[in-house]
């Protein structure tokens, strides 16, 4: 197996037909991954006179370009196997497999995010002091009493005095 090496991005030609298949969301996701852990999978290129033709790794190449890289890690392959690999990559089964893997990755990321938010909420609940009132404080406060009907509390001092006299209270 050939060893990965560094190729100048400016010398890599991307066929027009392949350029039309670029998905910006995938490029953005790969660029984020490259920022975190670096380029893990090399692209495949084949020699063509004074340049290289991209065989596989369009989104990785575009992610490196978007990050401002001048080189990309790749493997040099010969034209015949490269042609066969390109044909295999364009088969519907390969596209279905890529879609499946993308869905699984999305589900995994959603699950991890949900678990992280649950852990965060548990941590917040443990550090917060519960804000509760004693039953007596609620019972003694006429504004919080559930038995109080609307309009039963006096609005003025004279109404309050009248109510106290009526109820037999002392003011």
Please give a structural write-up.
This protein is α/β, with parallel strands linked by helices and 171 residues long. It is built from 7 helices and 5 strands; from the N terminus they run E-E-H-H-E-E-H-E-H-H-H-H. It has a 5-stranded mixed beta sheet. Strand 3 and strand 4 (51-56) form a beta hairpin. It is rod-shaped, with a radius of gyration of 35 Å. It starts with a strand and ends with a helix. The model has no long low-confidence stretch (mean pLDDT 78).
Distance between the termini: 98 Å
The shape is rod-shaped
- Provide the spatial order of strands within the biggest beta sheet: 1-5-3-4-2
Outline the low-pLDDT stretches: none
Helicity, in percent?
A: 40-55%
Average predicted confidence as pLDDT: 78
Number of strands: 5
Order of helices and strands: EEHHEEHEHHHH
Give the structural class.
alpha/beta
Write a concise synopsis of the structure shown.
The protein is α/β, with parallel strands linked by helices and 171 residues long. The protein has helices at residues 16-19, 24-37, 58-66, 79-89, 92-127, 135-140, 157-167; strands spanning 5-8, 12-13, 43-48, 51-56, 71-76. The longest helix is centred in the middle third of the chain and has 36 residues, at 92-127.
